[in-house]
Amino acid sequence: MNRPQPAGVDSSLGRLYDCRVIHDQLAWYVAGPVLGLCVVACRALFNGRLGVTGGFSELIVKLRGGSARFDWRGWFVIGVALGGTLFLLLAGEPVFHGYGWLTATFDGPWGDAAIAAILTLAGVAIGFGTKTAGGCTSGNGLSGVSLISPAALVATATFFATAIVVAFAIEAVIA
Amino acid sequence: MSARSWSALAVGVVFGLTLCWSGMSDPEVIRGALLLEQSYLYLFFASAVLTAAVGQALLRRLRARALLAEEEIVVSRQRPERRHLVGGFVFGLGWGVANVCPGPIATQLGEGIPWALFTLAGVVVGILLFFRGGAAETEPGSDAAPGSPPARPQPPARIREEPSGAG
């Protein structure tokens, strides 16, 4: 009885191509344990501590030495990136809503250049800081804290507290 | 590629997919969490830590050997040093500004998000800066060989011959 709707080009196209497997954010009580099991897997397989920064530094050190014979850490981080690609295929679009506060604050002709510079500098702090602390959110935060390693607890408390303060400071300045 | 490489790749894919699916590779989600507007990240993080803690405690209780490494499962717990405080602070600055940590940078690259090229470039420079001072790797591939100075000779007993069927 339903007539085909003439204005339904978009929606019918949407239906046609809507073969997305992933629609919504995974519940935390599923996502968290899956991430935890990845830590357990690295321990069970390699007696290693899961850490993304360790993977990045493995890639950098090996590639600088002209070798691509990465150890498990290097392949792990390559896998993390491929996990992003798999998500893109399953969800149909990346989970990324841009840099809201950066794009709103730095508009104008040089806006993108300013954002690129800020992100690069922030990246330097992330790379240098995580190597100095011996881990990032995964290496110290997840793996280290799950072992109740005192060093990881100190590092994790410090970077969480710092990031929260920085986020509030930015909010205060741009508001 | 060895079995080790393939399995590390597989664990990485699961990890990366979950980071995306949970929204953690979206800077806006991280920002909302850091501004304490959303509890997701903290519940997610706590449940991940709890799962990892229980699983690793079980492995050690079972005195398991690593499946793909010739060593018994041990974990290293380090005493806090100044570098953990300093490094955590510097990382926190970057995380608070860019709202990405290294995992999401990797997944964003896999998702083809151009901004990730800049954070990645920064991370590479930051890691190179760290190693430029001749610093030792702070995240070794195995906890059986913690980043000890090479001055100490490696005991040859590291290559153990296990009688088949033992243990």
How would you explain this protein's 3D organization?
The complex is a heterodimer of chains A (175) and B (167). Chain A is an all-alpha fold. Chain A has one domain. Chain A is built from 8 helices and no strands. The longest helix of chain A is centred in the last third of the chain and has 25 residues. Chain A is globular and about 50 Å long. With 167 residues, chain B is an all-alpha fold. In chain B, 56% of the residues lie in helices and 0% in strands. Chain B contains 6 helices and no strands. The relative contact order of chain B is 0.10.
Mean pLDDT of chain A: 88
Outline the low-pLDDT stretches of chain A.
Answer: 1-16
Strands of chain B, total number:
0
Order of helices and strands of chain A: HHHHHHHH
List strands and helices in order, with pairings.
The complex is a heterodimer of chains A (175) and B (167).
Chain A: H1 9-17, H2 28-46, H3 52-64, H4 72-91, H5 100-105, H6 111-133, H7 137-146, H8 150-174
Helix pairs in contact in A: 3-4, 7-8
Chain B: H1 3-21, H2 27-34, H3 40-61, H4 82-98, H5 102-111, H6 115-132
Helix pairs in contact in B: 1-5, 5-6
Note the main attributes of this structure.
heterodimer; A: 175 residues; mainly alpha; 8 helices; 71% helix; globular; B: 167 residues; 56% helix; disordered C terminus
Short structural description:
The complex is a heterodimer of chains A (175) and B (167). By secondary structure, chain A is mainly alpha-helical. Chain A has helices at residues 9-17, 28-46, 52-64, 72-91, 100-105, 111-133, 137-146, 150-174.
